[in-house]
Amino acid sequence: MQFSLKKYGVFAGGAALGALVDYVVTLGAVRLGGLSPSLALGLAMLISASAVFLWHDHVTFAAANQPGRIQRYLAFMGWSLAVFLLRAGLLELFGHFGMALPLALAAAILIASVINYVISAALIFPGNRP
């Protein structure tokens, strides 16, 4: 699979909305709701993952009219769980080393975004690469 900077840009556009939701909801749930950062991030990702799937299915990979949408959705949601675990692990790691929560959360989201693109393009939407 060849990495496409242009396709990553479109992917990142959709993911940016999800990341913004993740960032704002996570910080709000921690500060206002008293949740742990990892639990707050998990709840935020439940909200954002479905919306991001629709973006990728319609825009990034233009797969919406192809068969297998439910399978792609389930695969994407399963992969979103793996992305959550990666993000939460990075968030905990960065926090362990004293990084401030807003910076740690942004770094975890950014790192996981690149990995997410590569896996999504290769495994979830494989017939729709550039």
From TrEMBL:
Subcellular location, record wording: Membrane
Pfam families registered for this protein in UniProt: GtrA_DPMS_TM (PF04138)
Domain of life: Bacteria
InterPro entries, alphabetized: GtrA_DPMS_TM (IPR007267)
Keyword Transmembrane carried by entry: yes
GO CC terms in record: membrane
GO BP annotations listed: polysaccharide biosynthetic process
Topology of this chain in the membrane: Multi-pass membrane protein
TM segment ranges: 9-29, 35-55, 76-97, 103-125
Positions of the GtrA/DPMS transmembrane domain: 11-125
Name listed for the protein in its UniProt record: Putative flippase GtrA (Transmembrane translocase of bactoprenol-linked glucose)
Source organism of the structure: Paracoccus aminovorans
Lineage: Bacteria, Pseudomonadati, Pseudomonadota, Alphaproteobacteria, Rhodobacterales
